[in-house]
Amino acid sequence: MSHRPGVRTATALLVAATSLIGTAALSACAAGSDALTSQARTTTNTVSGAVGTIALRNVYVAGPAARGGDAQVVSAFFNGGAQEDQIIQVSSDAANGGAAPASSVLKPGGGVIYIANGSAPTLTGLNRELLVGQAIPVTFTFAKAGSVTLNVPVEPAAPGASAQATAATSATPTPRAVASTDRAH
Fold first, then answer.
1. Which of 41, 46, 55, 57 holds its CA 20 to 30 A away from the CA of 107?
2. How many C-beta atoms lie closer than 10 Å to residue 146's C-beta?
């Protein structure tokens, strides 16, 4: 029996190439015209910062907002310290005043997420119209950590939220860690 190594190698390469092309073609069929990858998604520009043991994440002003009106500052604050801290003031040169959120205490090792539902820190008495795409300086002042000023973008409020401040109906939940039973093998 004669062996022809060149033919065997060529046949193996042909089978591998055909399998690869067939797999790619068939996987594209599974996506369909209603695939998640074909749906539009919005991107929200946010900024982050820190002062002392407080980390500020995903900060943006919910807009647009009219001159004379109020604008909520959507944000997440995390306290990495060993002592409780508190948000005592939010201010900007784009507003005549600011209101700290009703639930402003940051417990050690915890955090608070503020969405545009009336519970967020709020800039009051805007002295100019805030349009989506602009950025304004916003100063966050904490009782122990001090102050930090961030150049915060104005972005549309998340779906289901409102750019206009309203009275909060419940306390803001505190994020917590959840144990996972999944383990990598």
1. 46
2. 12
